[in-house]
Each structure stands twice: as C-alpha cells, then as structure tokens.
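Researcher: Let's do a round of design. I'm pasting the structure tokens now; please hold your answer until I've finished.
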C-alpha cells in the first residue's frame, strides 16, 4: 500500500471552521488504496484557538476517517504581525522534530511527500526531507507567496523577509517533481519562477454536501419581514475589503436588503464597531464547514469580497465562490480579473470593482431588482459549472492520478 505524507499547517476537518481540502483529498485517496498521514496545526485559523491539544501537549495523533492526523502545537497570533511569522516558524520546528522521529527513530517509509502553501517555510522543509529520503515531492500552491505580501500595501515593507521568501519560493518550485496550482491563471507566474510539471486542480465543493437548493421563497416580494439576504462567509481581515461592504450596505439601508457576515479575523471588532448602528448588517461567529450548506441555502445571493490587490486578479481560487455555485446561488463579486471574468462570461451573478462602495451598492440593487426567473437561471448555470469543472470528485480523481504516476 503506497503511503503519502500531506503537510498543510491550516488543514482542517469538517467539524471545525475553515477549509477542508486536504481532509477531502486524503479521504478519497484512502478509498483508492493509499495510506495517508497528515500534519497540521491545532491552532484553528478561523477561531484563533486550539481545538485538540491539552495544555502541555506538543502533538496529538488521531485516526480520522482512516487518516492518521497529527495536530501540532504552534505559537498563537491574533493579527498579521511578527507573531504570525513566529507562528509559522513554530510549526516548522515541531514538524521538523516529528518528521525526524518518524524517519530516523521509527524508520517509517513513505512514497510521496506533498506540501501545501501558503506556508512556504513548511513546504521548503518538506522538500528537504523528500530529497534526503529520496522520494518525490509535490507542491500545492494555494496562495502566491510572497507576491501577495509585495502587492498588498503596507505588508511588503520588510525587504529581508520578502527576499528570504522569494528564495524559498524559487527553490521549492525548481526542485518539486510536480506542482499543483489552484488558480489556472497562476500557471504562468509559477513557470516564470522555475516551476515545471504544473497541473490545475482548483478548489471545489463536495456536491453531495452542497446540494442544489432552489432560491428561498418570495411570496410577496422582498420586504422587512422577508428581506433580500446576502451572505458573506469567510475571513474578516484587511484583505477582505469588508469595510467597503459595510459602506455599500449603508448606501442602500432604505431597501429590504440584509447582510450576514459569518466568520472571524483581525478586523472583526473594528467592523462591528463601524456598523453598530446599521440595522441591515448582522455578524455571526465562524461555523463548521459541515454546517455551511444549511446557512448559505437561506441566502438569495453569496458575496465574494477582496481588496484591489494585483495578485488577486490571477492567483486565487475562493472556496466560498464554488460553494455558492454548487448550492445554486447568484454571486456578487468585486474581484477584477479571473473571478469577475468567469461570473460575467457564464452570467452567474453581478460584478463590480474592489474598494468602491457605490459600485458595489449598484451591483447589489441590480440583482435585487432582477426577476426571480433570471436569478433562477443564474443558479442553474452555476450548478452546472460546479458539476462539470469544480466538483470535488473530479478534482480528487485528478489528484489520485498525479500521485499514482509518482508512486512506483
């Protein structure tokens, strides 16, 4: 039975808030005859707290649906500052110790090591271990680090950090046996930095979990008792541009439209303070991935929001977008580039530019006034796209094929 180690600091299970891509891939690989061991941080990124480890534990190993799952202790952080860097380095340190024990003391054998970004130091460390024990290394590129730091105002000021990450990025691309990108438009970026053998495997929903649901009933149109409901589910950070969303909500406060923002992050307290007198805005705590479908099916539309950062035009694959496709909801997106282009090309919702409250408000009103039949057609087109391109089943099959080609 071939064995693969999967490394992703932010990997999650459906019972917790956050993405579950590695869990879903691992579960599928086990069905196809793989032995899978996964290494992740126990510090939940969405909730900013430990979920499994007791006070003095450094690692906890569990069997989760056949996956040997290692939860590692890391240093904590609340905001994207020096403590975030220490958080990443502490994960690397514990990962190095654990992998060393498995290879040297326990003499464990593995056929492939797969590491997933954005944690570049952990991916590079995994690459080193793969080279030492002479097994293929596969690099999954979730986010284009350090480019996102360079492009984001105020985040790329530490030139030594950027320089170091650029070196790690190029070396990891150059010496990977295979590279998986989540955004098709990032293939050129990776090639330009030395990457070869690149496959596009985007994020995508489990279509059995995210069933298609008809739009909520509108017996007498939208009113205060039955407002047009927009749901945003995700991080509440600076890059998510949620202040623009709140400003747009204020511009259309006289309409029966409500905004529900689900999640957590460094900006949440400021966002709640900013909107404390807005009666059309509601905040919710993060919810487990397995519960997301029951919440978003109550929406008339799903909102996808990011700041105007160049790398977002070609380097992202947002889970929440494909979840919306699967469940059948028109989307509102302010992400110029590949995301807006796809929505416009397939007529799946409305789009506008980032950081522009007026444009966002006008796009929302366009969808609000749109006849239900038109929105229903958008919903069906979105589901069709989820079934043909973004289905988790399709993506997992490709994942398995790539790994099998390196397992001999």
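Researcher: That's everything. Go ahead.
Model: Designed sequence:
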């Amino acid at each position: 039975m071939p064995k693969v180690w999967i490394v992703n600091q932010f990997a999650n299970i459906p019972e917790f808030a956050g993405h579950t891509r590695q869990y879903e891939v691992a579960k599928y690989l086990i069905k196809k005859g793989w032995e899978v061991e996964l290494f992740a941080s126990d510090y939940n990124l969405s909730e900013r707290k430990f979920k499994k480890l007791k006070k003095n534990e450094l690692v906890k190993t569990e069997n989760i649906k056949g996956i040997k799952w290692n939860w590692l202790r890391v240093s904590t952080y609340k905001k994207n500052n020096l403590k975030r860097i220490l958080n990443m380095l502490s994960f690397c340190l514990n990962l190095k110790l654990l992998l060393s024990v498995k290879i040297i003391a326990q003499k464990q054998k593995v056929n492939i090591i797969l590491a997933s970004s954005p944690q570049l130091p952990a991916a590079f460390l995994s690459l080193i271990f793969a080279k030492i024990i002479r097994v293929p290394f596969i690099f999954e590129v979730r986010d284009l680090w350090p480019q996102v730091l360079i492009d984001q105002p105020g985040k790329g000021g530490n030139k030594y950090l950027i320089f170091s990450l650029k070196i790690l990025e190029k070396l990891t691309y150059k010496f990977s046996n295979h590279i998986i990108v989540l955004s098709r438009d990032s293939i050129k970026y990776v090639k330009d930095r030395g990457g070869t053998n690149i496959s596009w495997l985007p994020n995508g929903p489990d279509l059995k979990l995210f069933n298609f649901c008809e739009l909520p009933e509108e017996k007498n149109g939208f009113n205060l008792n039955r407002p047009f409901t927009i749901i945003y589910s995700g991080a509440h950070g600076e890059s998510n541009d949620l202040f623009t969303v709140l400003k747009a909500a204020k511009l259309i406060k006289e309409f029966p439209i409500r905004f529900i923002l689900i999640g957590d992050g460094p900006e949440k307290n400021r966002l709640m303070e900013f909107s404390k007198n807005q009666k059309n805005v509601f905040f919710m705590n993060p919810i487990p991935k397995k519960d997301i479908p029951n919440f978003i099916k109550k929406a008339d539309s799903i909102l996808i929001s990011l700041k105007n950062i160049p790398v977002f035009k070609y380097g992202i694959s947002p889970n929440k977008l494909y979840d919306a496709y699967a469940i059948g909801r028109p989307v509102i997106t302010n992400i110029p580039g590949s995301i807006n282009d796809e929505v416009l090309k397939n007529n799946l919702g409305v789009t506008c530019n980032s950081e522009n409250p007026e444009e966002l408000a006008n796009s929302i009103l366009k969808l609000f006034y749109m006849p239900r039949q038109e929105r229903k057609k958008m919903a069906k087109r979105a589901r069709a796209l989820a079934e043909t391109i973004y289905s988790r089943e399709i993506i997992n099959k490709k994942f398995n094929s790539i790994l099998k080609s390196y397992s001999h």
